[in-house]
Specification:
Elements lengths: L1 E4 L4 H10 L6 H9 L18 E4 L2 E3 L2 H11 L8 E5 L5 H10 L6 E6 L2 H11 L3 H8 L3 E5 L12 E6 L8 H5 L1 E11 L6 E8 L5 E9 L7 H6 L1 H4 L14 E4 L7
Parallel strand pairs: 4-5, 4-7, 5-6, 7-8
Antiparallel strand pairs: 1-11, 2-3, 8-9, 9-10
Helix pairs in contact: 2-4
Length: 260
């Protein structure tokens, strides 16, 4: 179980997550304030309520409490100048939060990989409203690309932090190979429909790996573009969460998020 927190604006959403103890570190708070979630959610939805929102093409953006949890899990690895890979980047929202954390120092390289071209295009449109992110793209420190997430992104490997925004049947070996010594991989693992666990994998400086299960989750599957497009019609039936009248508060709810 975890707190479910709603806001009527980006800042009030972040404040609710902080009050609930889901945001612990000032760097994470600053990054989530620097990236307005409302820019990354299609019109007609509720970007600041703590539930997944539809992106189209069978994809969703995860609930804010899940984003906060994943950023906190990776914060220590995303030092200034870090290299970060976001697999199944969807809207690009979480990729930009990682970028804000890494951009505090020179040498940062942050890449989001998404196999639905329309989502990649939308992520570029959203990012255009964020000047510092545009500068990172001009400097080739930030990329939002169409590609196969299972393949990672060898060009910028090894990565200090890797996040996967959809559930894999097992930890993808290629992503473990692309993780730097001292790095961390966060990936939901389990069958479509559950049960799934948010798996945290650490690689020590000698290359040895250790894992643990952080929490039970429910994500959409990490799959092929063809399979995802084929299921897109089913996602239209996905129920929305709390109504806009339930804003600026926190309530108890299951820590489950079918998102990216």
């Amino acid at each position: 179980m975890s707190w479910t927190c709603h806001g009527s604006s980006n800042s009030s959403m972040v404040a609710a997550l902080k009050r609930a103890g889901l945001i612990h570190n000032p760097e994470v708070e600053a990054a989530m304030l620097a990236v307005d979630r409302g820019l990354f959610v299609p019109p007609g939805q509720s970007p600041y309520q703590d539930s997944p929102q539809l992106l189209g093409f069978g994809a969703t953006i995860s609930a804010p409490h899940m984003h906060a949890a994943c950023v906190e899990l990776l914060r220590a690895q995303i030092k200034p100048g870090a290299r970060v890979l976001d697999v199944g980047s969807g809207s690009g929202y979480l990729t930009l939060i990682f970028a804000h954390l890494a951009n505090r120092g020179p040498g940062a390289r942050v890449v989001g990989v998404e196999h639905i071209k329309e989502l990649v295009d939308a992520s570029h449109q959203s990012t255009a409203a964020i000047p510092w992110a545009q500068q990172m793209m001009r400097d080739d420190a930030l990329r939002l690309l169409k590609g196969d997430g299972y393949a990672g992104f060898a060009e910028w490997a090894p990565f200090d932090a890797i996040h996967v925004g959809a559930a894999a049947p097992a930890v993808p070996p290629v992503l473990v190979d692309q993780l730097a010594p001292g790095g961390r991989l966060v990936v939901p693992v389990g069958p479509e429909g559950g049960p799934q666990q948010l798996v945290v994998l650490d690689k020590d400086m000698a290359g040895r790996v250790s894992t643990w299960n952080e929490m039970g989750v429910m994500y959409v599957p990490l799959t092929t573009e063809e399979a995802q497009r084929g299921k897109a019609a089913l996602m239209a039936a996905f129920k929305k969460g709390p109504s806009p009248g339930d804003l600026d508060g926190c309530e108890m709810g299951r820590s489950r998020s079918p998102g990216r």
